[in-house]
Design a protein that fits this description.
The protein is of the alpha+beta class. The protein has two domains: about 190 residues, 2-Layer Sandwich (Nucleotidyltransferase, domain 5); about 70 residues, SH3 type barrels (Roll). Helix content is about 30%, strand content about 25%. It is globular and about 55 Å long.
């Protein structure tokens, strides 16, 4: 196996595409991993796949259940995270990691490792969502939307291994479009993503307790938002995930007013309540 360096080409090193399904949106609020998916691609093209339901030791929230369909019955008898961690470690070892919205997945994985007092130190991380935002102008950067852009089938969407397979295909479609016949180096991709100096593993957004509790019950919210120009607006949204941006935590949601995915800084959301709109957005 070639040792990874900044100048390694991505076709010369192992890549691990990873995804987790969770009980909710925020590890800071106690949410846990309930499924892990990994797809390891060696430099010679050999694929190894791994998928495992995990006992999260807490209920799956209604919002998460609506998206991933992982019920309490499905988790009965599932192993604890630490029981499968050595196998996860073996698959991740010596590889560049690729995830769609890496801060979310790595934030949850990092929490699971901390809970069992084990190190979690990824050296190389690529984020397909960030790559799409930085180098493309798609109507939406959701994984399913990117798959549609590239005609990638998604038969197991919102399950961990299915999303790993989709991320793998979307990643290589974007790489081919950006670099034509040339394989980029790890450093070239890290410079695009601006992740070299800010590993996403340190990201763990902290939500206001009232908002975290509300997101446990519903992801359809009515918010009052103040934009950068000081304009206040009422938004009906469907929350999808939480990120940690440079200026603080960010709520990512489908906004009915704008008709697409938007990022809302939490320090600019001055009020939130369950949506009473009878035409609520469906989960992604």
């Amino acid at each position: 196996m070639n040792q990874i360096s900044n100048q390694s080409r991505i076709d010369e090193v192992p890549l691990v595409f990873l995804d987790v399904e969770t009980t909710g949106l925020s590890p800071a609020s106690g949410d846990r991993v309930c499924e892990v998916g990994l797809l390891r691609r060696e430099a010679d093209g050999k694929i190894t796949e791994f998928a495992q339901l995990i006992d999260p030791q807490r209920p799956v929230s209604p919002g998460a259940l609506a998206v991933n369909g992982i019920s309490a019955e499905m988790l009965e008898g599932a192993p604890l995270f630490d029981d499968v961690r050595p196998h996860i470690d073996a698959i991740l070892a010596g590889a560049v990691w690729v995830a769609h919205n890496a801060p979310f997945d790595l934030g949850f994985l990092g929490t699971e490792y901390r809970l069992v007092a084990k190190p979690f130190d990824p050296a190389w991380v690529l984020d397909t969502a960030m790559l799409a935002r930085r180098r493309f102008r798609f109507r939406s950067n959701r994984l399913g939307a990117l798959a549609a852009e590239f005609a990638v089938a998604t038969p197991d969407a919102h399950r961990a291994l299915g999303d790993c397979r989709t991320t793998h295909d979307v990643f290589f479609h974007m790489i081919r479009r950006l670099f034509a016949e040339r394989a980029p180096t790890v450093q070239e991709l890290l410079e695009i993503l601006s992740l070299a100096e800010q590993p996403p593993t340190a990201i763990e957004p902290v939500l206001p307790a009232s908002l975290a509790a509300m997101l446990e019950e519903t992801r359809d919210l009515q918010i009052r938002y103040i934009d950068a120009d000081g304009t206040t607006s009422e938004r009906s949204i469907h929350a999808t995930r939480i990120l940690q941006g440079v200026s603080g935590a960010i709520l990512v949601a489908h906004c009915r007013l704008r008709g697409g995915e938007r990022h809302f800084r939490l320090d600019r959301i001055v009020d939130w309540r369950p949506s009473t709109d009878e035409h609520r957005d469906e989960p992604d």
